[in-house]
Write a structure and sequence with these properties.
By secondary structure, the chain is an alpha+beta fold. It is built from 2 helices and 7 strands. It is globular, with a radius of gyration of 14 Å.
């Protein structure tokens, strides 16, 4: 695994735009994206946090904004590693007001993603923790 500059990857750019609340992030998403968020040892219902198209992903992101990130998020670290062939493993560390718990938290997630032709077409995020500040 080789660390790479986040700005040079689609996933790094996408996460930066997400943290900024910028809808231009959808310009970096393939129409047939395969997207899912999972939580490690968490009771939260994440069954709705998946999408198989850009349009469906837009709905997921709107709901995330309403229920999980009602005050947005602050990216503390976006650290992609190049796995070759368009694949990246990214450590995403963030601080946000967690709407589900109604409190400030930090969280570390790991994202396996694939990009081709300047678009993200695969996204698997594993939320490893959500820690109260």
């Amino acid at each position: 695994m080789t660390p790479v500059n986040a700005e040079t990857t689609v996933i790094g750019q996408l996460l930066d735009l997400f943290a900024k609340g910028d809808a231009n992030l959808f310009g970096l998403v393939a129409d047939d994206v395969d997207f899912r968020i999972d939580h490690y040892r968490d009771e939260a219902d994440t069954s709705w946090q998946s999408a198989d198209s850009k349009e469906a992903l837009m709905g997921v992101v709107v709901r995330l904004g309403q229920e999980v990130f009602p005050k947005g998020t602050n990216a503390l670290e976006i650290a992609p590693h190049d796995l070759g062939g368009g694949w990246h493993l990214t450590r995403f560390h963030q601080r946000f007001f967690y709407g589900v718990r109604q409190e400030e938290v930090t969280s570390v997630t790991y994202i396996l993603s694939h990009e081709a032709d300047g678009k993200m077409d695969f996204f698997r995020e594993t939320v490893t923790n959500i820690v109260s500040d």
